């Protein structure tokens, strides 16, 4: 499965520009996390492309299913099965909303990073220029503690980076922020 196949699915499932950017952002982050976890692994089970695709498509049917938690990921699963995507990719996408147990590092990564990318976008949007460039690790960590800021962001989900991925919250914020800042043009931020 290629990145182009994933982008095509985003269009077929009628993602809005904002939703598409959310997928793109988490895709870039997943590619960064692949480098952290798997680069030194001589025989990784999956490729960097696979990790990016999981980020790109995790919420692909969120809008088309009217944000129904029951239906979420079912349409994406159908599309992925049609094109013969690997089960491990499907399971990671389904795992981010508790439809499957999160067994792989890829599944755990997409779960922990999803809400953090949302928080980082919120941090960018309150900057005078509304840009990622002026967001710092320290400011994100501060906003994480301030539960009234972007109150819908699930902090406990982000903190699974420590329990499930063995990365400190500080390091995780640093990596996810960097991955998004490097692609800020593509994210329009
Ligand atoms: Fe998401």
Strand content: under 5%
Structural class: mainly alpha
Alpha-carbon distance between the two ends? 28 Å
Please give the domain count: 1
Radius of gyration: 16 Å
Total DSSP E strands: 0
Parts with pLDDT < 50 across at least 5 consecutive residues: none
Indicate the overall shape: globular
**What is the CATH architecture annotation?**
Orthogonal Bundle
Relative helix content: 55-70%
Largest sheet, strands/sense/barrel: none
Q: For the residues shown, what is the average pLDDT?
A: 95
What ligand molecules are bound, each kind once?
Answer: fe (ii) ion
Q: What is the CATH topology classification name?
A: Hypothetical protein af1432
Assigned CATH class: Mainly Alpha
The secondary-structure element order is: HHHHHHHHHHH
Tally the helices.
11
């Amino acid at each position: 499965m290629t990145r182009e196949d994933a982008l095509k699915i985003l269009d077929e499932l009628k993602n809005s520009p904002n939703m598409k950017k959310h997928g793109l952002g988490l895709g870039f982050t997943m590619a960064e996390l692949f480098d952290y976890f798997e680069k030194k692994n001589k025989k990784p089970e999956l490729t960097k492309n696979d990790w990016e695709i999981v980020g790109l498509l995790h919420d692909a049917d969120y809008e088309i299913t009217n944000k129904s938690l029951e239906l979420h990921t079912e349409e994406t699963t159908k599309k992925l099965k049609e094109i013969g995507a690997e089960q491990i990719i499907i399971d990671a996408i389904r795992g981010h909303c508790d439809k499957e147990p999160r067994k792989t590092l890829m599944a755990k990564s997409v779960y922990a990073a999803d809400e953090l990318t949302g928080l980082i976008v919120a941090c960018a949007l309150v900057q005078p220029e509304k840009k990622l460039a002026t967001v710092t690790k320290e400011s994100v960590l501060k906003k994480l503690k301030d539960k009234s800021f972007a109150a819908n962001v699930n902090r406990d989900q982000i903190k699974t980076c420590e329990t499930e991925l063995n990365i400190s919250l500080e390091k995780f914020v640093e990596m996810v922020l960097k991955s998004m800042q490097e692609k800020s043009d593509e994210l329009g931020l």
